[in-house]
Amino acid sequence: MIISSTTDYRAAAQKRLPPFLFHYIDGGAYAEKTLARNVSDLADVALRQRVLKDMSQLDTSIELFGEKLAIPTVLAPVGLTGMYARRGEVQAATAACQKGIPFTMSSVSVCPIEEVAPKLNRPMWFQLYVLKDRGFMKNALERAQAAGVSTLVFTVDMPVPGARYRDAHSGMSGPNAAMRRYLQSVTHPQWALDVGLLGRPHTLGNISTYLGKNVSLEDYMGYLGANFDPSISWKDLEWIRDAWKGPMVIKGILDPEDARDAVRFGADGIIVSNHGGRQLDGVLSSARALPAIADAVKGQIKILVDSGIRNGLDIVRMLALGADCTMIGRAFIYALAAEGGAGVTNLLNLLEKEMRVAMTLTSVKRVSEITGDLLVQGG
Ligand SMILES: Cc1cc2nc3c(=O)[nH]c(=O)nc-3n(C[C@H](O)[C@H](O)[C@H](O)COP(=O)(O)O)c2cc1C
């Protein structure tokens, strides 16, 4: 199979993974309108082509929270990454570090913090959900700090899990889920050997470490349903702000008023995100939400953005719309599922190459020069 894009990696991932995992990654909430618009609105952003300005020397790097990033993107937190490739968090994080960008570990990862962090040559980022079990949150913060995690990503757009219809149909949840998953696994032998057999244990590593007993995939959906906390408000975040010594970024901002609240709260950054279209269908795509948020808070707080980025040109578009940095979710997960860490490395190199093409043809030599001036007005 020839791989030249995220689309190719998606197709390869679909072949390799049992359907319950592929659709868990690929799907979104309700009718998946926001999921689709994340991609199509971004693809519709038109840039001004400029030529003949000697673009032989380009610099794609940025500095963010005191860290150097070789390209302006970060691997977004993705739950169960170790189910898509053998010890997937280790493979993805290693590829990110080799490229020179941060990996963000999800709270609901398969590998625990302690399995991944010591293998890396730069600090990783860690994502925390607001869970009813505040003991878990405190424990995770302490362990993250002990493992040298640099940046805390606090996800706030999941006080309740979204309605994802595909999961019930695919066997991720719903009737006879365990039996259906088993049957799908045995008909996908490459995955069954690589992950099903050699990628064990299949537990939620961070939560199992905290509870002192294995929390399995079987318990995953139940754990999430029982532990997300709809009572959360800005006030509940204050102790975390005080407990965490490094930069703290709020993930899941889609409205300028919430962005202003994040500035007032004292966050170091926000991530403009609709969780990849997995939470409330019908909300704005990130590409459409971003400009008003940038108008409201640019310069006061770092603005990251995710949801819909599939190539290096999309990264340039998001920066032109007002972001300081981006995050990628499905793009790296498809590559990881298809080819493991080597797939993530290849994808990140593709993103850089595509960014360089976009920078050359818009005549910007540095990332800081990617501004709204690049946008075709009314385009
Ligand atoms: C399979 C899957 C699992 C995810 N798990 C988490 C998670 O544990 N924590 C979190 O903050 N976001 C999670 N996200 C959201 C991503 O961090 C990110 O916001 C989203 O994937 C960006 O959209 P994109 O996939 O279009 O790039 C998940 C996304 C996917 C696809």
Q: Can you walk me through this structure?
A:
The longest helix has 33 residues, at 330-362. Helix 13 links the parallel strand 7 (248-253) and strand 8. With 379 residues, the protein is of the alpha/beta class. The mean pLDDT is 95. Strands 3-10-9-8-7-6-5-4 form an eight-stranded parallel β-sheet. The chain has helices at 6-16, 19-26, 33-43, 88-99, 113-116, 134-146, 165-170, 177-186, 189-197, 205-211, 217-227, 238-243, 256-265, 286-297, 312-320, 330-362; strands at residues 62-64, 67-69, 73-75, 104-105, 125-129, 152-155, 248-253, 269-272, 302-305, 325-328. It has 16 helices and ten strands. Helix 1 (6-16) packs antiparallel against helix 16 and helix 15 packs across helix 16 (330-362). Residues 24-25, 38, 76-79, 106, 108, 127, 155, 251, 273, 275-276, 278, 306-309, 328-331 line the site of flavin mononucleotide.
**Outline:** globular
Structural class: alpha/beta
Mean pLDDT: 95
**What is Rg?**
20 Å
Which stretches are low in confidence, meaning pLDDT under 50 for 5 or more residues running? none
* Contiguous helical run count: 16
What is the chain-wise order of helices and strands? Answer: HHHEEEHEHEHEHHHHHHEHEHEHEH
**Percentage of residues assigned to helices:** 40-55%
Strand content: 5-15%
